[in-house]
Amino acid sequence: MVMTRLRTARLAIDGGAPVRDPHTPWPTWPQPADGAVEELTAVLHSGRWAISSPRRGELAERRFAAMFAEYTGTRHCVPTDHGSSALVIALESLGLPHGEHVIVPALTWTATATAVFRAGLVPVLADVDPWTGCLHPDTLDPDVDARALIAVHWACVMADVPALSAAVAPRGVTVVEDAAQAHGARWQGRPAGSLGRLGCFSMQHSKVLTSGEGGAVVTDDDTLAPVLEELRADSRRYGPHRRERVLELVETASMMGSNFCLGEFAAALLCAQLGLLDRQHAVRNRNYERLSGLLAGIPGVRLLRRPPAQDRLSMYEVPIVFDPLPPTADNTWVAHALSAELGTRVYTPRTPLPRSPLLRPWTKPAIAPLSERFTEVHRGRTYPGAEYLAGHAVLLHHSAFLGEGQDMEDIANAVAKVAAGPRPCGARTHRTANTDGTDREAFVAPEAETDGHD
Ligand SMILES: Cc1ncc(COP(=O)(O)O)c(C=O)c1O
Questions:
Q1: Which of 110, 299, 338, 419 could be cross-linked to 358 through a Cys-Cys bond (beta carbons 3.0 to 4.6 Å apart)?
Q2: Ligand 1 mean position to 202 CA, how many Å?
Q3: Which of 88, 102, 109 to mutate to test the pocket of ligand 1 (most atoms within 8 A of CB)?
Q4: What single DSSP character describes residue 348?
């Protein structure tokens, strides 16, 4: 009854009354955990703000590494300064020859692909399944000769890493998980990050576990773990001695590294935030189930399909897919219309990587020599699954799910109202360069807006 009334009401984007009272606040993000101030203050007065300085008691970085290894059910965790550098060192640790191919999904944040270039390798973009937003064995081209595959757990759905591994292992392909958006998700009880040979995480501001900037690689591989340590600390590892006022990192130098170390303030903050994560998952996941039930009553609208084997969600963003879009509308308009109804930011997925302006290796001299291979391997390829989701989904940040059940009613009511909404005028098109070197028309509505980061 409420929904029927809403379907005929004037849209907020056209000056009508919004579904949600503009004075009702949404949960804020990020939310400091209990104990965060104490953790940060302890570092402030510790006399040690970096792992590369002389020892003065226990490092927060070592403490966080142990806690996060336990959380992900892995033997080793090597913290890094960003999720991007976690991906770089994970790939470098494999010791692959320069210019080898690495399979990357066409729908992900650009860092999944740029990290491949930074490791001296060439990303080969593969389409995603439009039901899940993730790679699937059926979306892989068996003719691509690759040495590694990065399985991204996208938005709130996990890629089927066991099936992907089974599909590519006979060809000697190593599976690396990009779990930047999936801290705490589980597949048949196994935590995200523990299913591939290496798992990479981001702790950037918008992630469910955050220290503003930060990252980590986890693995069960005892051979790769010390290499990862060196790769992120300029060829240094933790030495066997723990003497006060003596450097803890020693120059083992088996493989040339870079400085990708996590600072002590970020590490201390992560120790506190990790204690809050599962409680926040419980609230978000309860709200997600509620929204899922409410949206089931709205024809043509769906959430991503969650594989039955994924027994715990970790939602980073929640895509709401309109199949079909409202009459004569595009999803940029839908995002604007929902933002106006709800008073929170609803946005479209990023441009798929095959035509993303953020993935242009020819603009960077150190990487440009790989761009010819990159362009060549993508010639003539299409990505209907990624393009479909990029054109039909709108996203809500996970923080919108940290509040009350009433918030879900508001979201569902706004979706029902907008799903029947009219089309704005003034849409335009622009041209972008594709990875195959051609131009393609891409639809962009006025004031198109996407998330600032991944
Ligand atoms: C899927 C994915 N991979 C990699 C990254 C890179 O992480 P960071 O921004 O911490 O470098 C992000 C997040 O930004 C991401 O969402």
A1: 110
A2: 5
A3: 109
A4: B
Domains with residue ranges and CATH for the chain: 2-31+276-444 (3.90.1150.10), 36-274 (3.40.640.10)
For the residues 311-325, what does the mean pLDDT come to? 97
By the 8 A CB rule, do 150 and 119 touch? no
Residue 273 in tokens: 């935030």
pLDDT at residue 423, as a whole number:
47
Type of residue found at 316: Y
Query: Phi-psi category of 258—alpha, beta or left, where left has phi over 0 and alpha has psi -120 to 50?
Result: beta
124: phi then psi, degrees, rounded to nearest 5: -115, 115
**Ligand 1 atom index nearest CA of 84:** 11
The DSSP result for 260-321, as a single string, is -PPPHHHHHHHHHHHHHHHHHHHHHHHHHHHHHHHHTTSTTEEEPPPPTTEEE---SEEEEE
Distance 82 CA to ligand 1 centre (A): 8
For ligand 1, atom 7: residue with the closest CA: 83
Classified as helix, coil or strand, 324 is coil
CA distance 390 to 133: 10
Spatial distance between the Cα atoms of 153 and 178, rounded to a whole number of angstroms: 7
Q: What is the mean pLDDT of the chain?
A: 92
What distance in Å separates the CA atoms of residue 102 and residue 71, rounded to the nearest whole number?
28
Report the pLDDT value the prediction gives residue 241, as an integer from 0 to 100: 83
Does the structure show a pLDDT above 50 at 125?
Answer: yes
Closest among 220, 210, 230, 327 to 276, alpha carbons compared: 210
Tell me the pLDDT tens digit for each residue of 393-426: 999 999 999 999 999 999 999 999 999 876 454 4
264-297 pLDDT, tens per residue?
A: 999 999 999 999 999 999 999 999 999 999 999 9
Contact at 8 Å (CB) between 219 and 198? Answer: yes
Assigned token pair, 128: 């995603």
